[in-house]
Amino acid sequence: MRHKILTTVILMSCGLNVLASTAAEQSAVLFENVRIFNGSSAERSPTSNVLVQGNRITQISTAPITPPAAVSITKINGAGRTLMPGLIDNHVHITLGASSQSDLINPAISAEVLQTRAADEAHFMLLRGFTAVRDLGGPIFALKRDIDAGKTIGPRIYPSGAMVSQTSGHGDSRLPNERSRRFGGEVSRGELLGANFIADGRDEVLTATRENLRAGASQIKVMAGGGAASAYDPLDVTQYTLDEMKAAVQAADDWGTYVTVHAYTPKAVRRAVDAGVKSIEHGQLLDEATMKLLAQKGVFLSLQALDEAPASQTDDVRAKKHQVVDGTDRAFKWAKKHHVKLAWGTDFLFSPANNKNQNADILKLKQWFSPAAALKLVTHDNAQLLALSGLRNPYPGKLGVVEVNALADLLLVNGDPTQDLNLIADPEKNFVVIMKDGQIYKNTL
Protein backbone atom coordinates (compact mmCIF):
# COMPACT_ATOMS: atom_id res chain seq x y z
CA MET A 1 0.00 0.00 0.00
CA ARG A 2 2.83 2.38 0.80
CA HIS A 3 4.11 2.23 -2.83
CA LYS A 4 0.78 3.34 -4.34
CA ILE A 5 1.23 6.99 -3.37
CA LEU A 6 2.99 8.12 -6.56
CA THR A 7 4.90 6.20 -9.18
CA THR A 8 7.62 8.82 -9.08
CA VAL A 9 8.59 8.25 -5.47
CA ILE A 10 12.30 7.51 -5.32
CA LEU A 11 13.23 5.03 -2.61
CA MET A 12 16.62 4.22 -1.14
CA SER A 13 17.50 0.54 -1.30
CA CYS A 14 17.69 -1.10 2.10
CA GLY A 15 21.13 -2.57 1.65
CA LEU A 16 22.68 0.40 -0.12
CA ASN A 17 22.61 3.12 2.51
CA VAL A 18 26.43 3.31 2.60
CA LEU A 19 26.62 3.51 -1.19
CA ALA A 20 23.86 6.10 -1.23
CA SER A 21 25.76 8.22 1.28
CA THR A 22 28.90 8.02 -0.87
CA ALA A 23 26.93 8.88 -3.98
CA ALA A 24 25.36 11.87 -2.23
CA GLU A 25 28.84 13.27 -1.55
CA GLN A 26 29.71 13.02 -5.27
CA SER A 27 26.40 14.30 -6.64
CA ALA A 28 24.34 17.44 -6.39
CA VAL A 29 20.83 18.72 -6.99
CA LEU A 30 20.30 22.13 -8.54
CA PHE A 31 16.92 23.79 -8.11
CA GLU A 32 16.56 26.47 -10.79
CA ASN A 33 13.97 29.23 -11.19
CA VAL A 34 12.40 28.90 -7.74
CA ARG A 35 10.89 31.45 -5.38
CA ILE A 36 12.16 30.74 -1.85
CA PHE A 37 10.23 30.84 1.40
CA ASN A 38 13.25 30.68 3.69
CA GLY A 39 11.37 29.73 6.88
CA SER A 40 11.01 33.17 8.40
CA SER A 41 10.45 35.89 5.78
CA ALA A 42 6.91 37.07 5.14
CA GLU A 43 7.46 37.03 1.38
CA ARG A 44 9.14 34.78 -1.13
CA SER A 45 12.50 35.63 -2.68
CA PRO A 46 13.00 36.82 -6.23
CA THR A 47 13.54 34.01 -8.74
CA SER A 48 16.57 32.12 -7.43
CA ASN A 49 18.70 29.02 -7.78
CA VAL A 50 19.66 26.65 -4.95
CA LEU A 51 22.45 24.07 -5.01
CA VAL A 52 22.38 21.04 -2.71
CA GLN A 53 25.54 18.96 -2.28
CA GLY A 54 25.46 15.92 -0.05
CA ASN A 55 22.92 16.71 2.67
CA ARG A 56 23.48 20.48 2.81
CA ILE A 57 22.50 23.59 0.92
CA THR A 58 25.77 25.01 -0.44
CA GLN A 59 24.74 27.92 -2.68
CA ILE A 60 21.76 30.25 -3.10
CA SER A 61 21.86 32.88 -5.83
CA THR A 62 19.66 34.93 -8.13
CA ALA A 63 22.39 34.43 -10.74
CA PRO A 64 22.94 31.09 -12.51
CA ILE A 65 24.91 28.56 -10.44
CA THR A 66 27.67 26.50 -12.00
CA PRO A 67 28.09 23.22 -10.09
CA PRO A 68 31.61 22.09 -9.23
CA ALA A 69 33.39 19.97 -11.81
CA ALA A 70 33.29 16.16 -11.51
CA VAL A 71 29.94 16.30 -9.73
CA SER A 72 26.92 14.42 -11.04
CA ILE A 73 24.16 17.01 -11.21
CA THR A 74 20.39 16.62 -11.13
CA LYS A 75 18.66 19.77 -12.36
CA ILE A 76 15.10 20.59 -11.33
CA ASN A 77 13.43 23.53 -13.06
CA GLY A 78 11.05 25.00 -10.51
CA ALA A 79 9.35 27.23 -13.11
CA GLY A 80 8.49 29.80 -10.42
CA ARG A 81 7.26 27.30 -7.83
CA THR A 82 7.96 27.80 -4.12
CA LEU A 83 10.98 26.12 -2.52
CA MET A 84 10.50 25.93 1.24
CA PRO A 85 11.76 23.97 4.26
CA GLY A 86 10.24 20.59 5.03
CA LEU A 87 7.32 20.64 7.45
CA ILE A 88 7.93 19.80 11.12
CA ASP A 89 5.36 18.29 13.49
CA ASN A 90 6.49 18.85 17.06
CA HIS A 91 4.04 16.49 18.74
CA VAL A 92 3.48 13.06 17.20
CA HIS A 93 3.13 9.51 18.47
CA ILE A 94 3.99 7.49 15.38
CA THR A 95 3.50 4.03 16.87
CA LEU A 96 0.57 4.93 19.11
CA GLY A 97 -1.11 6.77 16.24
CA ALA A 98 -0.71 3.97 13.71
CA SER A 99 -2.99 1.56 15.63
CA SER A 100 -6.26 1.83 17.51
CA GLN A 101 -6.30 1.81 21.29
CA SER A 102 -8.03 -1.59 21.28
CA ASP A 103 -5.28 -3.04 19.08
CA LEU A 104 -2.55 -1.59 21.29
CA ILE A 105 -3.94 -3.31 24.40
CA ASN A 106 -4.81 -6.56 22.59
CA PRO A 107 -2.26 -9.24 23.57
CA ALA A 108 -3.07 -11.15 20.38
CA ILE A 109 -1.54 -8.36 18.28
CA SER A 110 2.23 -8.61 18.41
CA ALA A 111 4.71 -5.81 18.84
CA GLU A 112 6.04 -6.68 15.39
CA VAL A 113 2.65 -5.96 13.80
CA LEU A 114 2.45 -2.64 15.63
CA GLN A 115 5.93 -1.72 14.43
CA THR A 116 5.10 -2.60 10.82
CA ARG A 117 2.10 -0.27 10.97
CA ALA A 118 4.31 2.43 12.46
CA ALA A 119 6.83 2.03 9.64
CA ASP A 120 4.04 2.44 7.08
CA GLU A 121 2.81 5.55 8.84
CA ALA A 122 6.33 7.04 8.94
CA HIS A 123 6.56 6.50 5.19
CA PHE A 124 3.25 8.28 4.57
CA MET A 125 4.30 11.08 6.91
CA LEU A 126 7.39 11.85 4.85
CA LEU A 127 5.34 11.81 1.65
CA ARG A 128 3.04 14.37 3.26
CA GLY A 129 6.09 16.64 3.43
CA PHE A 130 6.93 16.20 7.12
CA THR A 131 10.69 15.79 7.04
CA ALA A 132 11.18 15.99 10.84
CA VAL A 133 9.00 15.12 13.81
CA ARG A 134 9.31 15.04 17.59
CA ASP A 135 7.86 11.76 18.87
CA LEU A 136 6.55 12.42 22.37
CA GLY A 137 5.80 8.95 23.63
CA GLY A 138 5.84 5.38 22.46
CA PRO A 139 8.11 2.60 21.21
CA ILE A 140 10.01 4.40 18.47
CA PHE A 141 13.75 3.77 18.82
CA ALA A 142 13.95 0.74 16.49
CA LEU A 143 12.01 2.51 13.74
CA LYS A 144 14.18 5.62 14.07
CA ARG A 145 17.32 3.49 13.70
CA ASP A 146 15.93 1.81 10.57
CA ILE A 147 15.04 5.15 8.99
CA ASP A 148 18.44 6.65 9.78
CA ALA A 149 20.15 3.56 8.33
CA GLY A 150 18.13 3.79 5.11
CA LYS A 151 16.33 0.49 5.75
CA THR A 152 12.92 2.12 5.64
CA ILE A 153 11.46 5.49 4.69
CA GLY A 154 10.38 8.21 7.07
CA PRO A 155 11.10 11.61 8.59
CA ARG A 156 13.87 12.54 10.98
CA ILE A 157 12.62 11.44 14.40
CA TYR A 158 13.45 13.18 17.66
CA PRO A 159 12.43 10.37 20.07
CA SER A 160 11.31 10.60 23.69
CA GLY A 161 10.73 6.91 24.26
CA ALA A 162 8.41 5.83 27.04
CA MET A 163 6.28 8.57 28.60
CA VAL A 164 7.17 8.99 32.29
CA SER A 165 4.06 8.97 34.48
CA GLN A 166 3.21 8.65 38.14
CA THR A 167 0.77 5.98 39.28
CA SER A 168 -2.70 7.29 38.32
CA GLY A 169 -1.07 9.79 35.97
CA HIS A 170 -1.92 10.52 32.37
CA GLY A 171 0.55 7.86 31.22
CA ASP A 172 -0.74 5.13 33.52
CA SER A 173 -2.33 3.01 30.78
CA ARG A 174 -3.28 0.00 32.90
CA LEU A 175 -6.69 -1.56 32.39
CA PRO A 176 -9.07 -1.63 35.38
CA ASN A 177 -8.12 -5.22 36.19
CA GLU A 178 -4.35 -4.57 36.10
CA ARG A 179 -2.98 -4.16 39.61
CA SER A 180 0.10 -2.13 40.39
CA ARG A 181 3.36 -4.08 40.17
CA ARG A 182 4.04 -2.72 43.67
CA PHE A 183 0.90 -4.36 45.07
CA GLY A 184 0.70 -7.84 43.65
CA GLY A 185 0.46 -7.00 39.97
CA GLU A 186 2.76 -7.43 37.01
CA VAL A 187 4.43 -5.00 34.64
CA SER A 188 1.67 -3.51 32.47
CA ARG A 189 1.35 -4.09 28.72
CA GLY A 190 2.01 -0.40 28.08
CA GLU A 191 5.34 -0.64 29.88
CA LEU A 192 6.24 -3.89 28.12
CA LEU A 193 5.57 -2.23 24.75
CA GLY A 194 7.70 0.76 25.69
CA ALA A 195 4.79 3.19 25.57
CA ASN A 196 5.16 4.41 29.16
CA PHE A 197 7.02 4.01 32.43
CA ILE A 198 5.02 4.18 35.66
CA ALA A 199 7.50 5.74 38.07
CA ASP A 200 6.89 7.02 41.61
CA GLY A 201 9.37 8.83 43.81
CA ARG A 202 12.64 10.47 42.95
CA ASP A 203 14.58 7.22 42.48
CA GLU A 204 12.11 5.70 40.03
CA VAL A 205 11.80 8.92 38.05
CA LEU A 206 15.60 9.06 37.77
CA THR A 207 15.68 5.47 36.57
CA ALA A 208 12.89 5.97 34.02
CA THR A 209 14.56 9.09 32.64
CA ARG A 210 17.94 7.42 32.42
CA GLU A 211 16.47 4.34 30.72
CA ASN A 212 15.08 6.56 27.97
CA LEU A 213 18.37 8.41 27.63
CA ARG A 214 20.24 5.10 27.45
CA ALA A 215 17.95 4.01 24.63
CA GLY A 216 18.63 7.18 22.64
CA ALA A 217 16.04 9.76 23.70
CA SER A 218 16.66 13.27 22.38
CA GLN A 219 14.35 14.74 25.05
CA ILE A 220 12.26 13.41 27.94
CA LYS A 221 8.46 13.48 28.11
CA VAL A 222 6.91 13.67 31.59
CA MET A 223 3.21 13.72 32.47
CA ALA A 224 2.70 16.72 34.79
CA GLY A 225 -1.09 16.95 34.79
CA GLY A 226 -4.39 15.33 33.97
CA GLY A 227 -5.44 14.34 30.48
CA ALA A 228 -8.47 14.67 28.25
CA ALA A 229 -8.24 11.30 26.49
CA SER A 230 -7.57 9.18 29.59
CA ALA A 231 -10.27 7.62 31.72
CA TYR A 232 -8.74 7.69 35.21
CA ASP A 233 -7.12 11.09 35.79
CA PRO A 234 -9.25 14.25 35.96
CA LEU A 235 -8.14 17.14 33.78
CA ASP A 236 -7.56 19.45 36.77
CA VAL A 237 -5.11 17.28 38.74
CA THR A 238 -1.43 18.16 39.14
CA GLN A 239 0.94 15.23 38.78
CA TYR A 240 4.40 14.65 40.23
CA THR A 241 5.81 16.53 43.19
CA LEU A 242 8.34 19.27 42.61
CA ASP A 243 11.14 16.99 43.80
CA GLU A 244 10.13 14.21 41.40
CA MET A 245 9.95 16.65 38.51
CA LYS A 246 13.34 18.10 39.38
CA ALA A 247 14.80 14.59 39.30
CA ALA A 248 13.79 14.19 35.65
CA VAL A 249 15.09 17.66 34.78
CA GLN A 250 18.43 17.05 36.49
CA ALA A 251 18.95 13.68 34.83
CA ALA A 252 18.12 15.12 31.40
CA ASP A 253 20.33 18.15 31.96
CA ASP A 254 23.24 15.87 32.89
CA TRP A 255 22.88 14.41 29.38
CA GLY A 256 22.72 17.85 27.77
CA THR A 257 19.02 17.84 26.96
CA TYR A 258 15.65 18.86 28.42
CA VAL A 259 12.27 17.77 29.75
CA THR A 260 8.94 18.61 28.17
CA VAL A 261 5.70 18.02 30.07
CA HIS A 262 2.08 17.26 29.30
CA ALA A 263 0.12 19.88 31.25
CA TYR A 264 -2.98 22.03 30.83
CA THR A 265 -3.53 23.97 34.05
CA PRO A 266 -1.73 26.92 35.67
CA LYS A 267 -0.78 24.89 38.76
CA ALA A 268 0.73 22.01 36.76
CA VAL A 269 2.59 24.36 34.42
CA ARG A 270 3.95 26.59 37.19
CA ARG A 271 5.29 23.57 39.07
CA ALA A 272 6.97 22.34 35.89
CA VAL A 273 8.54 25.75 35.28
CA ASP A 274 9.80 25.83 38.88
CA ALA A 275 11.42 22.43 38.26
CA GLY A 276 13.30 23.72 35.22
CA VAL A 277 11.18 22.21 32.44
CA LYS A 278 11.83 23.92 29.09
CA SER A 279 8.72 23.06 27.11
CA ILE A 280 5.02 22.70 27.84
CA GLU A 281 2.81 20.47 25.71
CA HIS A 282 -0.79 21.75 25.42
CA GLY A 283 -1.50 24.51 27.98
CA GLN A 284 -4.98 25.30 26.66
CA LEU A 285 -6.32 25.94 30.18
CA LEU A 286 -3.66 28.46 31.21
CA ASP A 287 -4.52 31.86 32.61
CA GLU A 288 -2.89 35.01 31.27
CA ALA A 289 -0.56 35.39 34.25
CA THR A 290 0.95 31.95 33.68
CA MET A 291 1.30 32.71 29.97
CA LYS A 292 3.31 35.80 30.94
CA LEU A 293 5.49 33.59 33.14
CA LEU A 294 6.31 31.33 30.19
CA ALA A 295 7.38 34.37 28.21
CA GLN A 296 9.52 35.70 31.06
CA LYS A 297 11.25 32.36 31.56
CA GLY A 298 11.70 31.62 27.84
CA VAL A 299 9.78 28.35 28.12
CA PHE A 300 8.34 26.94 24.88
CA LEU A 301 4.61 26.33 24.56
CA SER A 302 3.88 23.53 22.09
CA LEU A 303 0.23 24.16 21.24
CA GLN A 304 -2.26 22.13 19.22
CA ALA A 305 -5.66 23.02 17.78
CA LEU A 306 -7.41 19.83 18.87
CA ASP A 307 -10.84 18.56 17.84
CA GLU A 308 -13.80 17.59 20.00
CA ALA A 309 -13.88 13.95 21.13
CA PRO A 310 -16.02 11.67 18.95
CA ALA A 311 -19.46 10.61 20.12
CA SER A 312 -18.13 7.08 20.71
CA GLN A 313 -16.14 8.32 23.72
CA THR A 314 -17.52 8.41 27.25
CA ASP A 315 -19.33 11.49 28.53
CA ASP A 316 -16.42 12.22 30.87
CA VAL A 317 -13.80 12.14 28.11
CA ARG A 318 -15.96 14.27 25.81
CA ALA A 319 -16.50 16.84 28.57
CA LYS A 320 -12.76 17.04 29.28
CA LYS A 321 -11.89 17.36 25.61
CA HIS A 322 -14.44 20.15 25.22
CA GLN A 323 -12.71 22.15 27.97
CA VAL A 324 -9.43 21.85 26.09
CA VAL A 325 -10.91 22.79 22.74
CA ASP A 326 -12.74 25.72 24.33
CA GLY A 327 -9.48 27.10 25.78
CA THR A 328 -7.48 26.91 22.55
CA ASP A 329 -8.40 30.36 21.20
CA ARG A 330 -7.43 32.14 24.43
CA ALA A 331 -4.16 30.21 24.63
CA PHE A 332 -3.05 31.17 21.12
CA LYS A 333 -4.09 34.81 21.55
CA TRP A 334 -2.35 35.22 24.92
CA ALA A 335 0.76 33.41 23.69
CA LYS A 336 1.01 35.80 20.75
CA LYS A 337 0.23 38.85 22.89
CA HIS A 338 3.02 38.09 25.36
CA HIS A 339 5.53 36.76 22.80
CA VAL A 340 5.73 33.23 24.17
CA LYS A 341 8.03 30.92 22.24
CA LEU A 342 5.46 28.94 20.29
CA ALA A 343 5.66 25.57 18.60
CA TRP A 344 2.98 23.48 16.90
CA GLY A 345 2.03 19.82 16.62
CA THR A 346 -0.91 17.54 15.87
CA ASP A 347 -0.89 14.95 18.72
CA PHE A 348 -2.95 12.37 16.81
CA LEU A 349 -3.50 9.23 18.88
CA PHE A 350 -5.21 5.85 18.44
CA SER A 351 -6.98 6.82 15.20
CA PRO A 352 -5.05 5.67 12.10
CA ALA A 353 -7.73 7.03 9.77
CA ASN A 354 -7.09 10.53 11.13
CA ASN A 355 -3.39 10.59 10.24
CA LYS A 356 -4.08 11.65 6.66
CA ASN A 357 -5.35 14.97 8.08
CA GLN A 358 -1.91 15.96 9.36
CA ASN A 359 -1.46 18.64 6.68
CA ALA A 360 -5.03 19.89 6.93
CA ASP A 361 -4.50 20.42 10.65
CA ILE A 362 -2.13 23.27 9.76
CA LEU A 363 -5.06 25.13 8.20
CA LYS A 364 -6.60 25.59 11.66
CA LEU A 365 -3.78 28.06 12.34
CA LYS A 366 -5.42 30.56 9.97
CA GLN A 367 -7.57 31.66 12.93
CA TRP A 368 -4.50 33.23 14.55
CA PHE A 369 -1.79 33.57 11.89
CA SER A 370 -1.26 34.83 8.38
CA PRO A 371 -0.26 32.08 5.92
CA ALA A 372 3.39 33.14 6.06
CA ALA A 373 3.36 33.25 9.87
CA ALA A 374 1.77 29.80 10.02
CA LEU A 375 4.47 28.45 7.69
CA LYS A 376 7.14 30.02 9.90
CA LEU A 377 5.62 28.27 12.92
CA VAL A 378 5.63 24.82 11.31
CA THR A 379 9.17 25.17 9.92
CA HIS A 380 11.57 27.69 11.50
CA ASP A 381 9.93 27.98 14.93
CA ASN A 382 9.39 24.25 15.36
CA ALA A 383 13.04 23.71 14.46
CA GLN A 384 14.08 25.98 17.33
CA LEU A 385 12.37 23.62 19.75
CA LEU A 386 14.01 20.57 18.13
CA ALA A 387 17.38 22.24 18.66
CA LEU A 388 16.80 22.32 22.44
CA SER A 389 17.97 18.69 22.42
CA GLY A 390 21.47 20.14 22.48
CA LEU A 391 24.07 17.42 22.93
CA ARG A 392 21.41 14.75 22.31
CA ASN A 393 20.35 16.23 18.98
CA PRO A 394 20.47 13.26 16.58
CA TYR A 395 20.76 15.52 13.53
CA PRO A 396 23.19 18.39 14.22
CA GLY A 397 22.67 21.19 11.76
CA LYS A 398 20.05 23.83 10.97
CA LEU A 399 16.55 22.68 10.15
CA GLY A 400 13.43 24.66 9.24
CA VAL A 401 15.23 27.16 6.98
CA VAL A 402 16.46 27.52 3.42
CA GLU A 403 19.90 29.04 3.78
CA VAL A 404 23.49 28.16 3.00
CA ASN A 405 24.85 25.30 5.14
CA ALA A 406 21.39 24.30 6.39
CA LEU A 407 20.39 20.65 6.18
CA ALA A 408 18.67 19.97 2.86
CA ASP A 409 15.11 19.14 3.93
CA LEU A 410 13.13 20.84 1.16
CA LEU A 411 9.72 20.94 -0.52
CA LEU A 412 8.98 22.28 -3.99
CA VAL A 413 5.38 23.48 -3.93
CA ASN A 414 2.94 24.37 -6.68
CA GLY A 415 1.85 27.95 -6.10
CA ASP A 416 2.58 30.36 -3.27
CA PRO A 417 1.70 28.98 0.20
CA THR A 418 2.75 32.28 1.83
CA GLN A 419 -0.45 33.65 0.28
CA ASP A 420 -2.60 30.51 0.07
CA LEU A 421 -2.02 28.18 3.01
CA ASN A 422 -4.58 25.74 1.59
CA LEU A 423 -1.90 24.47 -0.81
CA ILE A 424 -0.21 22.72 2.12
CA ALA A 425 -3.30 20.59 2.75
CA ASP A 426 -2.96 18.66 -0.53
CA PRO A 427 0.61 17.34 -0.54
CA GLU A 428 -0.03 14.68 -3.19
CA LYS A 429 -1.02 17.35 -5.70
CA ASN A 430 1.05 20.32 -4.59
CA PHE A 431 4.34 18.93 -3.26
CA VAL A 432 6.07 18.08 -6.52
CA VAL A 433 9.50 17.46 -4.93
CA ILE A 434 10.17 16.16 -1.42
CA MET A 435 13.78 16.07 -0.26
CA LYS A 436 15.11 14.94 3.11
CA ASP A 437 18.79 15.08 4.01
CA GLY A 438 19.69 15.79 0.40
CA GLN A 439 17.90 12.69 -0.91
CA ILE A 440 14.92 13.04 -3.25
CA TYR A 441 11.98 10.89 -2.15
CA LYS A 442 9.44 12.31 -4.59
CA ASN A 443 9.85 14.11 -7.89
CA THR A 444 6.88 14.47 -10.24
CA LEU A 445 8.63 16.92 -12.57
From TrEMBL:
Region (Disordered) residue spans: 158-181
Record keyword Cell cycle present: no
Stored InterPro entries: Amidohydro-rel, Metal-dep_hydrolase_composite, Metal_Hydrolase, Metallo-dep_Hydrolase, OTAase-like
Domain Amidohydrolase-related per the UniProt entry, residue ranges: 82-440
Record keywords, A-Z: Signal
Signal peptide boundaries: 1-23
Listed PANTHER family: ALPHA-D-RIBOSE 1-METHYLPHOSPHONATE 5-TRIPHOSPHATE DIPHOSPHATASE (PTHR43135:SF3)
Biased composition (Basic and acidic residues): 171-181
Protein origin, superkingdom: Bacteria
Gene3D superfamilies named in the record: Metal-dependent hydrolases (3.20.20.140), Urease, subunit C, domain 1 (2.30.40.10)
Name of the protein in its database record: Amidohydrolase family protein
Pfam families recorded: Amidohydro_1
Organism of origin: Deefgea salmonis
